């Protein structure tokens, strides 16, 4: 007789748990979510946005996009600084590697 002793894990996917995790996100990510959520012209506060987002089936995609927006802006500014300090040719080589890496990660 074979007994399976492999541990099993379950993740609570409730909106209450999702809201808890949204509240633990860095303020910059929360702010990006707020801006995206209020694009319709309404002005909701962060608590209302996070509560609504916790019930939204697209929540994880929206959080992912908010984080990507932050990291892509950082990459752009680093590339500009590199052009000014390292020279054009080195900067183009470096930036092209970074863009390739970013595009590869976005496909995942």
UniProtKB/TrEMBL annotation:
Its cofactor is Mg(2+). Its main location: mitochondrion. Pathway: Phospholipid metabolism; CDP-diacylglycerol biosynthesis; CDP-diacylglycerol from sn-glycerol 3-phosphate: step 3/3; Lipid metabolism. GO terms for biological process: cardiolipin biosynthetic process; CDP-diacylglycerol biosynthetic process. It is a peripheral membrane protein. It is found in: Mitochondrion inner membrane. Keywords: Lipid biosynthesis, Lipid metabolism, Magnesium, Membrane, Mitochondrion, Mitochondrion inner membrane, Nucleotidyltransferase, Phospholipid biosynthesis, Phospholipid metabolism, Transferase. InterPro entries: Tam41. Signal peptide: none annotated. Its EC number is 2.7.7.41. It comes from the Eukaryota. Belongs to the TAM41 family. This is Phosphatidate cytidylyltransferase, mitochondrial. It comes from Trichonephila clavata. The gene is tamm41.
């Amino acid at each position: 007789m074979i007994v399976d002793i492999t541990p099993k894990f379950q993740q609570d996917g409730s909106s209450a748990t999702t809201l808890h995790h949204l509240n633990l996100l860095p303020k910059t990510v929360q702010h990006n979510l707020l801006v995206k959520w209020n694009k319709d012209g309404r002005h909701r506060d962060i608590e209302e946005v996070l509560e609504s987002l916790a019930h939204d089936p697209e929540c994880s995609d929206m959080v992912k996009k908010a984080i990507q927006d932050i990291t892509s802006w950082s990459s752009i500014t680093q590339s500009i600084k590199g052009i000014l300090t390292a020279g054009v040719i080195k900067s183009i080589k470096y930036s092209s590697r970074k863009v390739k890496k970013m595009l590869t990660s976005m496909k995942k």
